[in-house]
Amino acid sequence: MEILAFGVQADERPLMERAFAGHHEVRCLDVFLNEDTAPIAVGYETVSTSVNAELGARVLEVLAAGGTRMIAQRSTGFNNIDLKAAERLGLTVARVSYYSPYSVAEFAWTLAMAVNRRVVRASTRTRDFDFRLDGLMGRDLHGRTVGVLGTGKIGEAFTRIAHGFGMRLLGWDVTENPGCLELDMTYVPKEQLLAESDLISLHVPLMPETTHLLDAEALKAMKDDAILVNSSRGGLIDTAALVGELRAGRFAGVGLDVYEAEAGLFYVDRSLEAIEDDTLARLVTFPNVLVTSHQAYYTEDAVGQIIEATVRNVLDYKAGRRSENVLVPRS
């Protein structure tokens, strides 16, 4: 069987080909799966997709009509997939339920430190041989308060790093993590976390109940000089409201690895095009904002684990096995 893999980055391709060798052939495409590209999958029983694929009902109908029976998503998140439509069409859907939490947690700290210590601005200056320190002053994080929204595996890894900095730890989640409690994390209501934290990092999945978790009201509840980091899902933050707060001169720094309208933008070279997304165009103009391209997971360790899990998902599908990665079982 030959698998068609959409949205494969250049660094990923050799890893994909090696992982599937001896099992199945894999055809890697750099284009992302959406309504325009779905017809490419005609004749492929199994399709592998990336986190930025558009897997709404219409795309799934095109895939099913073309003979696709299994979708192997190479990510933990699956908010981009219409699972009810997939079940109706008889499509098996699997994801990667686990990969290195350190990849995302470490990158979240990279963003936090970069905006706190004005690293991007300093680097830009020194390229022009401007070695002034004006405007580059940051703050010690030792002794300050960090608020972690979502304390699962990634949130715990982020918390352990914060503990190493000697920070006061506040957490918010539906379930308290024993590992975080051992680090002396205090679980508090979201409102208290927002009001008291000097640094806030998001590590919750995107679901209807978490969409715009940080809306206009929540953003206003934060300290004026707080640092905000989001390496989870863009839809957790009301970006238009965030721009409004930034225009008012609030927040010491904002580090975003995700954006709520990133589909069709991220992972693609748009440098020679006019960006029609006015919100994103405005966001990247703020000197205290750093936006990256949904790359927090992108380490050799994490990508290798994602691909290995994807291979297992395909093999399980062919063998009629079901694992914890299956979102819609084989009919």
Describe this structure in words.
34% of the residues lie in helices and 15% in strands. It is α/β, with parallel strands linked by helices and 331 residues long. The protein has 2 domains: 2-99 and 299-328, NAD(P)-binding Rossmann-like Domain (Rossmann fold, 3-Layer(aba) Sandwich), CATH 3.40.50; 101-291, NAD(P)-binding Rossmann-like Domain (Rossmann fold, 3-Layer(aba) Sandwich), CATH 3.40.50.720. The strands form 2 sheets. A 7-stranded parallel beta sheet has the order 8-7-6-9-10-11-12, with helices on both faces. It has a 6-stranded mixed beta sheet with strand order 2-1-3-4-5-13. α1 runs parallel beside α12. The two termini are 19 Å apart. The model has no long low-confidence stretch (mean pLDDT 95). Belongs to the D-isomer specific 2-hydroxyacid dehydrogenase family.
Salient structural properties:
331 residues, alpha/beta, Rossmann fold, 2 domains, 6-stranded mixed β-sheet, 12 helices, 15% strand, globular
